[in-house]
Specification:
With 605 residues, the chain is mainly alpha-helical. The protein folds into 3 domains: 320 residues, no CATH class; 81 residues; 115 residues, no CATH class. The protein is built from 25 helices and 2 strands. Strands 1-2 form a two-stranded parallel sheet. The N and C termini lie far apart (56 Å). The N terminus is likely disordered.
Length: 605
């Protein structure tokens, strides 16, 4: 760093508002982990025995184990052999499941039966989607099946013919070079007759497929090289040239077609699945609404947020100018070095709030076994806000960041945004979920869904708001920022997957309607579309919370179930679509021909 800049930077950072560290008990009455008696961690074993389990648990666990074994047998993702074998496997499981004596199953068993049937149907639909995508990539990767066959023959334990293997590698490189020339021809204003017209989305899929086949090819080559002298003599040079060509091909696709530039962040391209894809995914989540209906629900939630924002702005003396209130909130952050203790204080504050009101059981072991790490500057480009689960990953400036990046990170992780979501990530949110997932009905990990995972954590944002956890105007502003963001996620992600919005339109929407700084909006959209999140993941936050809100009204507000019983029973059920949670909490023995039909926001949302 230029030394002439250091005094100015020091003065800027020294002027930042700071939190009074150590002025209060940040544990809110909880002992330090090392001071709590370990005997407090041992549960009531008789109660665990009484809870029992589903009659279908062993069936689900066997399916998971056998499917994992099949993927070990056929490891090349997307190969014709793998897709065929998986299709046969799922169809055979459907037949065996249909043949079971359904009437002998209880409430839990019937839930698992329907969940597994839904999962099998979903996986078959995904195979159709994958086959279409592989067909679309074929012109860019004409050598794929040929290279996949090498690894698949290895799994048959047949000794390879070194000369034939070398010929296959050389032929694959020739096909790659021909595809490259056709792609280059397609980049011109007047493509030749045999040119391949490049497509960013298909190119991005091909890049990922090249990375996968490269790993399989390396595994195949290393298995024989040096152990089989003839194999190495024939294949070593063709293998080296092919792997270099694959790397060059991926680089060409990334830079010339996707549009990435060396040294810059990768463009946000994403992979929209279209109306048919959304219909399949919604069916798996047991959501009986169309994407358009879900967008309409999100717009109503957004309108509620906007009305609450105006109230906050008026309390702060800004009239109806909610963006001024938002700006004041962003500037209220702790000084460098103070963030970890503030996060811990917020975590224990939430535990104190929910335990004093006896809203849900919080075992001492759960309180003590989370931990904290700091997020790297590179990861903050994708996740500008902190993340959570079994630990909380704190996003905050580091001394290696550019000055502007430091100030951006401080604004994004201000006191009030943190206060609105630390409990979302820890207790009673994701950390609590993870704690129970490992201890109650762990076989339901197969039925993982963001509507349960993210919906539960966001439900607590809803619920604590209603219970008065957010009292001061700026604290309410922090909660409203996130609540608006969750509604926006439904709107922008569904419009993207329907092909109506570009990633840039999604970014602009977050800036204009939610109040994101542009760098956080870009990070959120990149995380949504360039990461490994499922297409409905962003929808699952608020829509799952709305489902739980409806279920809470149905069971708790009606007086049919106590609040603590509701939350405890919900947690102990394991992961599943919320409609199945509803059946479990109400003790409903689902009929064999049950179809998703719960209209949790009414018939006309």
């Amino acid at each position: 760093m230029n030394t002439r800049v250091r005094p100015l930077l020091f003065l800027c950072l020294a002027s930042l508002p700071s939190a009074p560290i150590g002025a209060a008990d940040f544990r809110h009455g909880q002992p330090a982990q090392s001071q709590r008696p370990a005997a407090d961690y041992v549960p009531d074993l008789a109660a665990i025995v009484r809870e029992g389990s589903s009659e279908m648990r062993g069936v689900v666990e066997r399916y998971v184990a056998d499917r994992g074994g099949l993927l070990v047998m056929h490891p090349v993702a997307g190969s014709p052999l793998q897709l065929r074998r998986l299709r046969e496997f799922y169809a055979a499981w459907q037949g065996k499941l249909d043949a079971m004596d359904y009437d002998k199953l209880g409430v839990e068993g019937r839930i698992d039966w329907h969940l597994l049937q839904t999962e099998l149907k979903f996986q078959l639909g995904l195979l159709d989607r994958q086959q279409k995508r592989m067909a679309g990539m074929a012109p860019l990767l004409p050598f794929f099946a040929q290279l996949a066959a090498l690894q698949e023959q290895r799994r048959e334990y047949a000794r390879p013919d070194g000369k034939a293997s070398a010929a296959a590698l050389a032929d694959a490189r020739a096909q790659l070079e021909a595809a490259r020339k056709a792609l280059e021809a397609g980049l011109g204003d007047k493509p030749a007759e045999n040119a391949i017209k490049p497509d960013k989305i298909v190119a991005l899929r091909a890049i990922n497929q090249i990375a996968a086949i490269g790993k399989q090819l390396a595994d195949w080559f290393k298995h024989y090289d040096t152990y089989d002298p003839e194999f190495g003599w024939w294949t070593r040079e063709p293998y080296k040239r092919l792997t270099g060509a694959l790397d060059d091909h991926a680089k060409f696709l990334r830079e010339k077609i996707v549009g990435a530039k060396p040294g810059e962040d990768e463009p946000i391209v994403g992979d929209p699945i279209g109306a048919d894809g959304l219909a399949l995914d919604l069916q798996r989540e047991m959501i009986p609404y169309t994407p358009e209906q879900l967008i309409a629900v999100a717009e109503k939630e957004f309108a509620w947020c906007e009305a609450e924002w105006r109230k906050v702005a008026q309390e702060l003396g800004y009239g109806d100018d909610w963006k001024k209130a938002l700006e004041k909130m962003k500037e209220d952050h702790v000084a460098p070095g103070d963030q970890p203790e503030m996060i811990a204080d917020l975590a224990y504050e939430a535990v104190d709030f929910i335990t004093k009101r006896d809203l849900i059981t919080v075992p001492p072991h759960m309180i003590d076994d989370w931990f904290m790490t700091m997020m790297s500057p590179e990861r903050q480009k994708v996740s500008p806000f902190f993340l959570g689960g079994d630990r909380i990953i704190v996003s905050f400036p580091t001394d290696s960041m550019d000055h502007k990046d430091k100030l951006d990170s401080l604004r994004a992780n201000n006191r009030h945004v943190c206060r609105a979501t630390v409990f979302h990530e820890l207790i009673p949110g994701h950390h609590m979920q993870g704690w129970y997932e490992r201890r109650a009905n762990p076989h339901r990990e197969l039925f993982d869904t963001p509507f349960w995972v993210e919906g539960w954590a966001l439900w607590w944002e809803f619920h604590l708001w209603d219970l008065g956890f957010q009292q001061k105007p700026l604290n309410r502003a922090g909660a409203l920022f996130w609540r608006s963001h969750r509604a926006a996620r439904i709107i922008f992600s569904l419009n993207f997957h329907l092909g109506r919005w570009t990633p840039q339109q999604c970014i602009d929407f977050l800036v204009d309607r939610v109040g994101h700084d542009r760098h956080t909006a870009t990070g959120e959209v990149r995380r949504s579309f360039n990461g490994d999140y499922s297409p409905l993941y962003q929808v699952g936050y608020m829509m799952g919370a709305i489902q739980i809100r409806a279920l809470y009204a149905e069971l708790v507000k009606s007086g049919r179930m106590g609040e603590k019983e509701f939350h405890d029973t919900f947690m102990k059920g394991g992961k599943m679509p919320i409609e199945m949670v509803r059946a479990r909490l109400s003790g409903t023995k689902l009929p064999r021909d049950h179809r998703s039909s719960w209209k949790f926001v009414g018939d006309h949302p």
